[in-house]
Design a protein that fits this description.
Elements: E1 2-5, H1 11-24, H2 31-42, E2 48-55, E3 58-68, E4 77-85, H3 94-108, E5 113-115, H4 123-132
Parallel strand pairs: 4-5
Antiparallel strand pairs: 1-2, 2-3, 3-4
């Protein structure tokens, strides 16, 4: 398995994983949002990046992160917004490898923190997260606009 930065040629590999991820979270999105997301990840001027886990020339997982400034940091943070590994590839190290690849990218940019959120009931993912990071006591609120 290798972790690579996504390129334009990788859209067809990424798209089934993205759709499975959206299905997992029961989050339908219009195609134009999906198109815009992928385009942002390829835009060198964007603070959004996409990494793919590749095994046997197939994408088995992805991590999408966003770099941003913070009022609590000199330089900024990296938010791991989306992480997904196909059901067939889970438990084989792809999720861990994707997190580490994003952490490496964040370190290269001088970020002071890599962080992410997940649903409380996402037990399988949380088992990994508990091994690679510390859970804090912040609660996330969302207000639709």
């Amino acid at each position: 398995m290798q972790i690579v930065a996504a390129g334009a040629q990788d859209r067809a590999k990424w798209l089934p994983l993205w759709r499975a991820y959206l299905d997992f979270y029961r989050q339908p999105l219009p195609d134009e949002v999906t198109d815009a997301t992928f385009a942002r990840c390829l835009d060198p001027a964007s603070d959004m990046q996409l990494r793919l886990a590749i095994a046997d020339e197939q994408a088995i997982g992805f991590a999408l992160c966003v770099f941003h400034l913070s009022s609590w940091a000199r330089i900024g943070y990296c938010y791991l917004e989306d992480l997904f590994v196909s059901e067939a590839a889970r438990g084989k190290g792809a999720g861990h490898a994707l997190i580490e690849a994003v952490a490496d990218a964040a370190k290269l940019r001088g970020c002071e923190r890599l962080y992410w959120v997940t649903q409380e009931g996402n037990i399988r993912a949380r088992a990994l997260y508990d091994r690679v990071a510390e859970k804090n006591d912040f609660v996330t609120y969302v207000k639709a606009l």
